[in-house]
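Sample intake sheet
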Amino acid sequence: MQALGMIEVYSFSTALRVADIAAKTADVRIIAFDRNRPIRTDVPAPLVMVVKMEGAVAAVKAAVEAGVSYAKECGKYIVSHIIANPGDGVEKMAYLLDINKDKFNKKLPKSLLGLELEEKAANGAIGFIEVEGLVATIEGTDAMLKAADVRLVHTEKRLGGRLVTIIVVGTVSAVEAAVAAGVAASSVLGKIYGREVIANPHPEVTKFFDMDTPNQQ
């Protein structure tokens, strides 16, 4: 590993957007998403996520700067850092991955150290809404799948189900319509902590999800 870059932000949806921006900015490999709980309660989202990437020093620097710029724009930036030539122990920690291995991505390992995930680009767009509460999540998911021709590829549950990210794919217009419908439906029952639509998501992001999973309702 020539260099390790890390960007710490609030919310899983923000972390995914930051990772996509970083991967599109420079030749870096997204190696993990890790998480923690914030110390304070007066924060933009009750979940801290770290995007980890590796590559040449110059590439990692450019990718981190681009990701940080977006995170600051949406008010969810915490901290970032770059380590050149990290040691073996640091490298092992850097690759630790914390994404739920539920029915949508059971093949996902706990670490990508020495491994290569198959990269699969999503045709069109990938969209997320990050919702407070399981009831609001189910209502939002139902609204998203009914509103447009999208496919559910992942649900990321955190805080015992008190924070859930719903991830769908489809054409750009379909995903935009689905996300809008999901936000409208979920916000009646719970708080929305994040919403994103990424057109032409980078394979470095989509590789973390089972893009071949059939729609689940």
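Comment: The helical segments are 12-25, 57-73, 88-94, 134-147, 172-186, 203-206. DSSP finds six helices and eight strands in the chain.
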